[in-house]
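Project standup — Tuesday

K.O.: blocked on the structure for the chain from last sprint. Re-posting the sequence here as requested.
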Amino acid sequence: MSSLPLITPTPPLISPVTNSISVTTSDINSYREKGYHIVPNLLSPSQLEQWRTIIFSAVEDRADKKYKFAKTDQEDCTNIDLDYYDNVFTQRVNLWQTHNSVKELLLESGNVIGKIAAQLEGVDCIRIWHDQALIKESFANPTAWHLDVPNWSFTTLHSISVWIALDDATLENGCMYFMPGSNKVVEERFYASNNKFPETKIGKNLSDVFNTYPELKQRQTVPVVLKAGSASFHSGHLIHGAGANMTTGRRAAMTIQMMPDNMIFNGTQNILTKEQIDELEIGVSLFNNDNYNPILYKNK
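H.V.: unblocked you, prediction finished:
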């Protein structure tokens, strides 16, 4: 008889879990034009330590499982060239589903993180699509240029992610890079394609996304150097990537991928299990179940 995996106990949650942060009209306008927004010092030193303790404990308990389930039940449907991709970073998805401490942490952050996301995107309700711990190990591969939402199980121009630096993210250890304004080009293509995104898988070639969006290949890019405890928000249709980790240390981040309420299933599996896929009807089923996609923030 097999025993259940040991879950590392974590200390009781201490609130608030983030600093009190607000966005201005100027911030919102800039985000919608450039596709991203930087928040220095989202976390105080003590809050950062709490996030690190909870997230790293959950990652350790997952061991080598990217998802909650075994590989026979759930597979990576977004990335290709998996031998390469497995050396991009240690990726642990939906830690909130297996660790109540992570769920409490994320939901408690909603009055700041969820509210910022809702305001930037101009929506009344933000749900968690999934979370990810992303750890670039020493000498890990770079992350190819890509955009997120074409790989997700719903179609919208209002998806958004927050990327929280648990370590300093530097040019040397693989910080993210954004392509400012690429979101506007993707939006234009979306409308011109009858409200559809072209499929863009993530592989080992840094420039593959430009086979789909060749007009973006000459765009300027910006590195997103962040101190630990700072964060960036980026649109689900912003082109972004990350450098290689050229150091002997790890570069850890916690991310939350978010969506508006009542998104409609579009047939893409992404992080869904085969069991979930069997229960969903394309073009009909809504993502509004708190057991799978908890509300992070709702404007009352």
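K.O.: great, moving the ticket to review. The chain has one domain: 30-292. The CA atoms of residues 38 and 290 lie 29 Å apart.
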